[in-house]
Write a structure and sequence with these properties.
The protein is of the alpha/beta class. It has two domains: 156 residues, Rossmann fold, CATH 3.40.50.2000; 162 residues, Rossmann fold, CATH 3.40.50.2000. The chain is 32% helix and 19% strand. The protein has a six-stranded parallel beta sheet with strand order 5-4-3-6-7-8. Strands 11-10-9-12-13-14 form a six-stranded parallel beta sheet, sandwiched between helices. Strands 1-2 form a two-stranded antiparallel sheet. Helix 4 links the parallel strand 6 and strand 7. The N terminus is likely disordered.
């Protein structure tokens, strides 16, 4: 039983909430209300990037069940994504990047937040910047998970410290577990997206969206020649398959996409003309049959949109909380010597990922591709 993408001009068939995990993920109307009737205004501090924000959305939607107005302090990419989540009232945008600016550069936003007099401020991450922003938010209740002791932690005016959930669970489950520590007992509301667009174009099935570049970390990238080999292996058995490769607003990522096209040498690979915003990317992912790519934020977005995924991972500590789970997701991994020895042993490309053969990725794609065009 599916839900729908709602747009100003059309309805896109879509079921984002039941494909991420095995079983049915209920909507907001089916959840049990949060036992916080006194919380009329809640601030969620979520200063992460695309993958972090994707995994925070179920908890943000669960907070909305209480009837509170939910605002989110987030990054630029987080604000762009949360614009598609109808339960978010507003976003306070902090222009973080890699490396991030010092916290004092955001004091103007924090002063404005304090004037809003939130009933509660909560973060799902124990990162230093998140803890600081919750502590000085001016909210009546200031709640954060604490995983390690810092000398300055007792000085922060937090009203409640929560144990950090097990990292063996998916990250979105960890964030719901923090709400359970606060007394919540509702069902996972999953993801729901609201788009405003006139776009009605379709993509022939079967189709695969490729994400071959990782923002800020070349150590997550699988070699381009192996991607090219994978494409051609798939086309030998499924010659009708279309591959689409996109890129962020980065000259390096655009160049890598063009290099892949030159290596693959097939008209079945289509490189986008320009970088895509998150709404356009989400719509594109929704129209394709499968995602194949790296350990990146685009992987998590595809997963939350309900698409099957094939991904390549270094086997590092904490991988379990980021890697997709379930029969619709293939995670291909190799031990990472750089991570084990805590030093950069691969200046050019990760040797561990290069050890994953193209035939293994191609076979996973073929197993998850539909045998016929999916029903509308």
């Amino acid at each position: 039983m599916g839900t729908a993408f709602h747009t100003d001009c059309s309805i896109f068939p879509f079921c984002p909430r039941r494909c991420f995990r095995v079983g049915h993920l209920p909507g907001l109307a089916e959840t049990i209300r949060m036992p916080f009737p006194e919380w009329k205004k809640v601030l969620v501090v979520d200063l992460g990037f695309l993958g972090d924000t994707v995994h925070s959305i179920p908890a943000i939607r669960a907070l909305a069940v209480s009837g509170a107005r939910v605002d989110v302090m987030t990054t630029q990419v987080g604000a762009e994504l949360l614009h598609l989540v109808p339960e978010v009232n507003r976003t306070w945008m902090i222009p973080l990047r890699k490396p991030s600016p010092p916290p004092w550069k955001n004091l103007g936003t924090l002063f404005a937040i304090r004037k809003d007099k939130y009933d509660a401020a909560i973060t799902f991450s124990g990162a230093d910047r998140n803890l600081f922003c919750v502590a000085v938010s001016g909210a009546s209740e200031r709640i954060a998970p604490v995983s390690r002791q810092r000398w300055w932690l007792p000085v922060l005016p937090l009203t409640k410290k929560i144990p950090v959930p097990s990292r063996a669970d998916p990250l979105f489950e960890q964030r719901l577990e923090i709400l359970r520590e606060l007394g919540w007992s509702g069902a996972n509301p999953g993801w729901f997206w609201s788009f405003r667009t006139k776009e009605k174009s379709e993509i022939p099935s079967p189709s695969v969206y490729l994400s071959v570049s990782a923002f800020g970390s070349s150590h997550k990238e699988w070699p381009l020649h192996l991607w090219a080999e994978t494409i051609n292996l798939v086309l030998r058995r499924r010659p009708e398959t279309s591959f689409i490769v996109g890129f962020a607003d980065s000259s390096r990522e655009k160049e890598r996409a063009q290099q892949l096209s030159e290596l693959a040498r097939t008209s079945q690979l289509h490189v986008l003309d320009s970088a895509t915003g998150l709404q356009s990317l989400a719509l594109l992912l929704q129209k394709t049959d499968l995602f194949a790519g790296l350990d990146s934020g685009v992987l998590h977005l595809a997963m939350a949109i309900g698409k099957p995924t094939v991904s390549v991972f270094r086997d590092y500590e904490g991988r379990e909380e980021w890697a997709p789970t379930g029969k619709r997701h293939a995670v291909l991994k190799r031990p990472c010597e750089c991570h084990q020895q805590k030093q950069n042993l691969c200046p050019n490309e990760p040797r561990c990922l290069a050890g994953i053969p193209a035939c293994e990725v191609a076979e996973s794609i073929l197993e998850l591709l539909p045998d016929f065009p999916p029903k509308p």
